[in-house]
Amino acid sequence: MKQYMENRILSIAHYTIDHCSTVRSTAKKFGISKSTVHKDLTERLPQIDHHLAEEVRDILEVNKSERHIRGGMATRQKYLQMQR
Fold first, then answer.
1. Which Pfam families is this protein grouped with (predicted)?
2. Which of 11, 38, 44, 64 has the maximum number of C-beta atoms within 10 A of its C-beta?
3. CB-hemisphere CA count at 13 Å for 46?
């Protein structure tokens, strides 16, 4: 794996852990696609640092379990704004 990719993957992983961020917010922060972030964190990171990959996987699982709640809250906010 190329050095710049390794650096990007580790930066993304540390950012995700430090900020408990979602794939979407991490992608926006780094200016790359959600697909790239997801692939980096789930497929490439375990090849580089298995321990770090486990920490990231835990955060991604929490985000996945909460996504339906976040979506409902966003929809609620949207319709509250429309009523004003």
1. SpoIIID
2. 44
3. 6
Pair 6, 48: CB distance under 8 Å: yes
Report the C-alpha gap between 61 and 42 in whole angstroms. Answer: 11
Could you read off the pLDDT of 28-60 as tens digits, one per residue? 999 999 999 999 999 999 999 999 999 999 999
Distance CA 14, CA 53 (A): 10
The region that residue 31 occupies, defined by phi over 0 for left and psi between -120 and 50 for alpha, beta otherwise, is left
Q: Residue 52 contacts by C-beta under 8 Å, 6 or more apart in sequence?
A: 10, 13, 14, 17, 45
Tell me the whole-structure pTM to 2 decimals. 0.84
